[in-house]
TrEMBL record:
Chief localisation class: membrane
Function: Conversion of 1,4-dihydroxy-2-naphthoate (DHNA) to demethylmenaquinone (DMK).
Upper classification of the organism: Bacteria, Bacillati, Actinomycetota, Actinomycetes, Mycobacteriales
Domain of life: Bacteria
Family as reported in the entry's similarity comment: Belongs to the MenA family. Type 1 subfamily.
GO cellular component: plasma membrane
Protein known as: 1,4-dihydroxy-2-naphthoate octaprenyltransferase
Length: 289
């Protein structure tokens, strides 16, 4: 049986910025409109964190039973390493989805019933990313899903449940966060091109190739900085987001210099921290503005 430390590692805590940053950005967009409902904001954070941990356990389970993780370089894989049984990891995934679903139901009951449909789509998207007979993550569509779910849905959803509406400011924040969240997956898949190709996992990185994937990663890192400039139309304080540029450059360095395998792991963490920093700085700027 896996130890508590192994379970924590298997939950991939380095991906938590992908859950926290959208909520922070959504709150910032909401504060630009007016008063934010803070207990709903807290529930939105629980939903986001529960879903991303559920996604990580789900991927661990599905990739593990397919043998995709047998030679994987990177964070702890519970099934692939044999530390935990597939069934235990699958149960952990659905426990997390269940926690997110319960909190989401509370938000839907106090905000709008159609949020239940959105939540159900999110859970299905999380499971079928690597689960099922034809996982879309194996077809090169994972980046699209990440941009939609951890960018558009998470940011605009947070803005909606906290202030009752969405606007173009929230959309700009969603594009910025979604691009960085996608960048996390891109550099992860860049690192795994050799093993993914061998196991038949045709991610976007496998389809594009090494050089094009590195260029794509750089473009994704530029998008939030562009959004900071776009948001000047709402408030000049949005330029605070540009202060995240050094962190974005740090995240780009291993990719730019041709690092491979374990050498790209640092870029994963740096991209996540840059995303969180951009979200916080942008939220502060929008709130002040």
């Amino acid at each position: 049986m896996a130890t508590p430390t192994q379970w924590i590692a298997g939950a991939r805590p380095r991906t938590l910025p992908n859950a926290i940053a959208p909520v922070v950005a959504g709150i910032g967009a909401g504060l630009h409109i007016g008063d934010v409902n803070w207990w709903k904001a807290a529930l939105a954070a629980v939903v986001a964190i529960a879903f991303i941990v559920g996604v990580n356990f789900s991927n661990d389970y599905s990739d593990g039973i397919r043998g995709t993780d047998d030679e994987r370089v990177g964070p702890m894989r519970l099934v692939g390493s044999g530390a935990a049984s597939p069934e235990a990891v699958k149960h952990a995934a659905f426990l997390c989805f269940g926690i997110g679903a319960v909190c989401g139901l509370v938000l839907a009951a106090t905000t709008a019933w159609w949020l239940i449909v959105v939540g159900a789509i999110c859970i299905a998207g999380a499971w079928f990313y690597t689960g099922g007979s034809k996982p879309y993550g194996y077809l090169g569509l994972g980046e699209v899903a990440v941009f939609v779910f951890f960018g558009l849905v998470a940011v605009l959803g947070t803005e909606y449940v906290t202030v009752g509406k969405v606007d173009w400011v929230g959309l700009a924040c969603a594009v910025g966060v979604g691009s960085l969240s996608t960048a996390v997956l891109v550099v992860n898949n860049l690192r795994d091109i050799p093993t993914d190709r061998e196991s038949g996992k045709n991610t976007l990185a496998v389809r594009m190739g090494d050089a094009a994937t590195r260029r794509f990663f750089g473009v994704l890192l530029l998008v939030p900085l562009v959004m900071s400039v776009v948001l000047v139309a709402a408030t000049p304080w949005s330029l605070l987001g540009l202060l995240a540029a050094p962190l974005l450059w740090k995240a780009y360095q291993p990719v730019r210099t041709g690092a491979v395998g374990p050498g790209l792991i640092a870029s994963l963490g740096a991209t996540g921290m840059a995303m969180l920093a951009w979200a916080v700085l942008t939220a502060v700027g929008l709130a002040v503005g």
